TrEMBL record:
This is Phage terminase-like protein large subunit. Residues 317-540 form the Terminase large subunit-like endonuclease domain. It holds the Pfam family TerL_nuclease. It comes from Cereibacter sphaeroides (strain ATCC 17023 / DSM 158 / JCM 6121 / CCUG 31486 / LMG 2827 / NBRC 12203 / NCIMB 8253 / ATH 2.4.1.). Residues 98-241 form the Terminase large subunit-like ATPase domain. One of its GO terms (molecular function) is endonuclease activity. InterPro entries: P-loop_NTPase (IPR027417), TerL_ATPase (IPR046461), TerL_nuclease (IPR046462), Terminase_largesu-like (IPR005021).
């Protein structure tokens, strides 16, 4: 196939005056197809009325035909959520439209249709000449998906309307339109230097959550800076990112002025096969777009049966949840942790001795404590930050938005001290939380021996046994294995806790060649202190339960 495909124009009967067929002073005028340059008309523009881009875009899209799939060749019908996104992203004053939705809901097809509308100049009564449309993605192959949708829409046009398009499939993927002032749509990969100096009128950032952090941010910044030259717009579409620190998550959680956000993400903690939440993440399923509801439920149950990475991937891609898909080294998966959560009124009682696991924070970091009752399996956790900076500022710096503020409102996070959390007063406050419950022992990091000794004396715990544990390969591997075994055996029950959910979502394990595990952060800004304290407490509780009971010695008279 030639690299440069120029669609042939229809040939008519030659005129005696030498002019092309259909031209001349008596030729019928076309309504909205006033052309510039080589004057290639487009019949699709004749039916478009109105001045606002949203109405014009919807009218244009409804004239296209589905390029591929089960309904290939049929007229394009927009679902309610698609019309809502078009109206929101094309509203006055909006420069960036952000759409987060489950996989298979035609988000790329929708954005490609809008790209074609901009390419032919259908979004404005008087479009800018030499319009530029960018298809941006992590790599060329990924961006090619949206490009193929664009070409598919063009192939579905009437023969006379295809005359003005030139399709290039060589080293560069481009589509050029000659009429209405001209336009060029091209594909770029995540390299910001490749578009410096460009001035796009429309940019499509496909699957933004999958872009590499540094290269992706460079590309995004280069695109956004170029949009300002010509009052352009950007459409950022993707399934949900695996964590809150991802740049796509920041667009959803902290949208800057001039941003329209439409997110289809169900509440966290629901079963994977819950149909109402599946339809919330996949609104197209109820309107005949993409997967059917029956298929989604069946796939969810298969993922549940397989567990592990299959279940995490289904939650991330099909349920549009912020769940990490890197299962090989995570401490526990989201579903494994959710199996331990129960309603607050169903929690087992605080019965028997309590194991207090403590992760003492350093300068400007979190200190966390976990309370575990081995006899009943009850687990609780509390975290504390220093007062400076504020929880809101700290959440913004850590890339978790207002999560810390929500934790404080739920009673799971407190503030103490100025720049650091004072160990003695903090440990005393932790003991008060027990409300008189018996403390069997305190478990902590042996490398903080001096600080723990001083803190326990200040908190009145000098006589309580202290169990020193390390976070390296030796102690860490044993504690992680005991924690996992207790969790999987149903010996850990906890009320829904945003603090613990957040900590376990950032907790991974590093594995040495011998298969030993030790706890680590999934990202540098992650806070896994509560997870570390929970591992220490539960592992020590498991050791206590496994220890043989001492029998009383017989007394000889």
């Amino acid at each position: 196939m030639p690299a440069d495909e120029r669609v042939k124009r229809p040939r008519g009967r030659p005129r005696k005056d030498g002019l092309p067929p259909g031209s001349g002073p008596n030729a019928p005028a076309r309504g909205g197809a006033d052309t510039v340059g080589r004057g290639v008309p487009l019949s699709l523009l004749e039916k478009i009325r109105g001045k606002d881009p949203a109405s014009r875009a919807i009218a244009f899209l409804k004239q296209l035909r589905v390029p591929e799939g089960k309904k290939a060749g049929k007229p394009l019908k927009l679902a309610e959520f698609q019309c809502r996104f078009v109206r929101g992203s094309m509203a006055p004053g909006v420069m960036v439209g952000v759409l987060s939705i489950g996989r298979g809901n035609a988000k790329t097809a929708l954005s490609a249709g809008l790209a074609l509308a901009e390419l032919v100049g259908a979004l404005h009564p008087k479009p800018q000449p030499k319009r530029e449309i960018l298809f941006a993605a992590r790599n060329r192959d990924q961006a090619k998906t949206a490009f193929q949708f664009l070409v598919g829409y063009i192939d579905g046009l009437p023969e006379e309307d295809r005359a003005g398009f030139t399709i290039r499939r060589g080293s560069k993927l481009e589509v050029e339109f000659e009429g209405n002032g001209g336009g060029l749509a091209r594909v770029i990969a995540a390299d910001g230097k490749s578009i410096l100096g460009g001035a796009p009128t429309l940019a499509l950032m496909d699957e933004r959550a999958a872009w590499e952090r540094e290269k992706g941010d460079n590309l995004e910044n280069a695109i956004l800076s170029g949009l300002g030259k010509r009052d352009g717009r950007a459409l950022i579409i993707s399934t949900s990112a695996p964590d809150d620190a991802n740049t796509f998550s920041r667009w959803l959680d902290e949208p800057p002025p001039g941003t329209y956000v439409q997110e289809h993400r169900p509440a966290f903690g629901l079963p994977a096969d819950d149909l109402p939440s599946l339809l919330e993440a996949n609104p197209g399923a109820a309107e005949g777009i993409g997967s059917t509801p029956e298929w989604l439920v069946a796939q969810a149950r298969r993922a549940i049966a397989r567990g592990g990475s299959a279940l995490s991937s289904f939650r991330n891609l099909n349920r549009n949840e912020r769940v990490s898909t890197e299962d090989r080294s995570v401490l526990v998966t989201v579903d494994e942790w959710l199996s331990a959560e129960v309603a607050p009124d169903e929690l087992p009682p605080r019965s028997g001795p309590c194991v207090l696991g403590v992760d003492l924070g350093g300068s400007r970091s979190m200190s966390a404590a976990a309370f575990y009752w081995p006899e009943t399996g009850r687990l609780e956790a509390l975290g504390t930050f220093p007062a400076s900076p504020s929880l809101a500022d700290r959440g913004a710096a850590d890339g978790v938005s207002d999560r810390y503020v929500q934790m404080e409102a739920r009673g799971e996070l407190t503030v103490m001290g100025d720049a650091t959390v004072p160990p003695g007063p903090w440990l005393a406050a932790i003991v008060r939380h027990l409300d008189g419950a018996e403390v069997a022992c305190v478990v902590g990091d042996r490398f903080r021996h001096a600080e723990f000794t001083e803190a326990m004396q200040a908190a009145g715990l000098a006589r309580v046994p202290f169990v020193w544990r390390g976070f390296g390969w030796k102690d860490g591997s044993e504690d992680i294995e005991r924690f996992r075994r207790a969790l999987f055996d149903g010996e850990v029950q906890v009320a829904p806790s945003m603090l613990l959910r957040s900590a376990f979502s950032d907790a991974i394990t590093l594995v040495d060649p011998a298969g030993n595990h030790k706890l680590a952060k999934a990202r540098s800004l992650g806070r896994i202190d509560a997870a570390a304290a929970s591992v220490l407490a539960v592992a020590q509780g498991a050791r206590m339960k496994a220890a043989p009971m001492r029998k009383a010695r017989a007394a000889w008279l």
